[in-house]
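Dear Dr. H.,

I hope your travels went smoothly. While you were away I took the liberty of generating a structure for the chain from your last submission, since the lab meeting agenda had it listed for discussion. I wanted you to have the full record in hand beforehand rather than looking at slides cold. The sequence, exactly as received, is reproduced here:
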Amino acid sequence: MLGVCNIAYNVVVFEDAAAGVKAGKAAGATVVAVIETHSRQDLAEAGADYILDGLDKVEISTDGRGNVTLHF
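The corresponding predicted structure, in token form, is as follows:
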């Protein structure tokens, strides 16, 4: 998946489609679903870990050592 073959990495997928949520979960990623093309219920039923009303709800910070934190 995107060249990440080391399972020690934490992978986060952002998706707006139920099929994409399912694919992300099948790949072992944490999935953040964004309500755009599918309903909250569809995204939840697909297995999204988090559901947001828009990407503008996400803030990203880093600790300077390569660690990234998502805030929403």
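Two observations you may find useful: The longest helix spans residues 18-26. The mean pLDDT is 89.

With kind regards,
E. W.
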